Amino acid sequence: MGADTSSTVATPAGEPILEVDNLRMYFPIKSGGLIRRTVGHVQAVDGVSFQVPVGGALGLVGESGCGKSTTGRVITRLYKPTGGAIRFDGRDIGNLKPRALKPFRRDIQMIFQDPYTSLNPRHTVGSIIGAPLAIHNLVPKKQILSRVQELLEVVGLNPEHYNRYPHEFSGGQRQRIGIARALTLQPKLLVADEPVSALDVSIQAQVVNLLQDIQREFGVAFLFIAHDLAVVRHFCPEIAVMYLGKIVEIGERDRIYRHANHPYTQALLSAVPDVKQAAIGGRRERIRLEGDVPSPINPPSGCRFRTRCPLAQEICARQEPPLLQIGPRHKVACHFAGELGQHPFKPVTARLLGVDDQGNPDPGAGPPTELFTQPGFADTWFDIKGRSSVEP
Ligand SMILES: Nc1ncnc2c1ncn2[C@@H]1O[C@H](COP(=O)(O)OP(=O)(O)O)[C@@H](O)[C@H]1O
Ligand code: SF4
Ligand SMILES: [Mg+2]
Q1: Euclidean distance between CA atoms 355 and 367, whole angstroms
Q2: Fewer C-beta within 10 Å: the chain N or C terminus?
Q3: In whole angstroms, what is the distance from residue 219 CA to residue 224 CA?
Q4: Structure letter (DSSP) for residue 355
């Protein structure tokens, strides 16, 4: 199965298996009555860009309703994206028709959140895990059973239990069955959508460890979706934080845990017990999150986090903060990006956007620049303290 990779850490030169560029997924809202007109859109995913290296792992984190599952479903092409590009293994799969998609359906598999609803209760474990082999006609019928047993062993279940039904297994074991099913076709990328959220805390770590072993052994890449930063911490060398359809901060794990610059990331960090110390770093400040994520049907103007952000100022309602490159492999979308307790008093983005400090158009300001806001990871970045660009 798969190539052997000794390191799972993404290197800047690492070839991406998946490149997502300005991805958008809007769901139409229809009016009632006979003639159903589109009266609006749920902007579930709105301009998201990231990469997952071959055999690597990116964590996608955010509260419920931020658009994480939708992002995962678009990548697996359960939905056709409204806009943007999805390049998998060098090919744009965002616009492929169902027929042309078939080979990619093998290469990208999904692990679902709820092991109780994602397995058909009327089928034996053997037929659940073996079904993809039969559908894709990959191995002779006689060999399916031995392949199923092999997979059961890989995920730590008794290979002799292939004839049992899902209800005969515990939650953790069912999730292992879901993982075995996702591995059947030897995918290159696994989209794991909160794979341990529905499990007892006591078995969450076991399942995460299993996924990590699988990643190491088979060199399969992961997009690992979670609603808090604790779960992805030990798994993902890179982390993207999502809020209301957009990525607000993305970077290498250590940058995110030690030097988070976005108030939302800082709030998520301070809510997680085992990273709390790192988040507050001895300082007393702490950002609390109040209320829920607003509706993506009519998101707040400017910065979408402003209705819950303790630092929000005028410019935040007027201008959308660009995803600014603030360090090697670290980006943040905030006018007042800074480490906790060290946020600047004036917006760092005003000059780049050609506006004054309140966010009004300013003919005296420099021209808008895209230099620091391009998708992917640039070598040139913006030093927030020095307010100047840093060449590699
Ligand atoms: N099929 C759909 N039709 C309409 N709205 C949807 C659909 N799927 C998700 N949404 C909406 O998109 C937003 C993002 O949802 P989701 O991607 O499930 O977020 P998350 O996984 O981060 O909790 C939510 O407001 C949700 O109600
Ligand atoms: S841009 Fe403004 S509202 Fe948005 S996170 Fe930064 S300070 Fe808060
Ligand atoms: Mg979800």
Answers
A1: 9
A2: C
A3: 15
A4: B
Two structure tokens written together for 147: 């392949």
Ligand nearest to the CA of 44: 1
Same domain, 119 and 182: yes
173 and 296 in a single domain? The answer is no
Helix axes 125-135, 171-183, angle to 10 degrees: 20
Ligand 2: residue whose CA is nearest its atom 5: 334
pLDDT digits (tens, 9 = 90+) for 40-90: 999 999 999 999 999 999 999 999 999 999 999 999 999 999 999 999 999
Q: Is the pTM of this model over 0.85?
A: yes
207 and 172 Cβ atoms separated by less than 8 Å: yes
Q: Could you tell me which residues are beta bridge partners of residue 381?
A: 390
Do the beta carbons of residue 193 and residue 112 sit within 8 Å? Answer: yes
119 CA to middle of ligand 1, Å?
22
Q: Which domain holds residue 91?
A: 16-29+41-240
* Distance from Cα 33 to the centre of ligand 3, integer Å: 31
65 plus 163 within the same structural domain: yes
Whether 225 and 355 map to the same domain: the answer is no
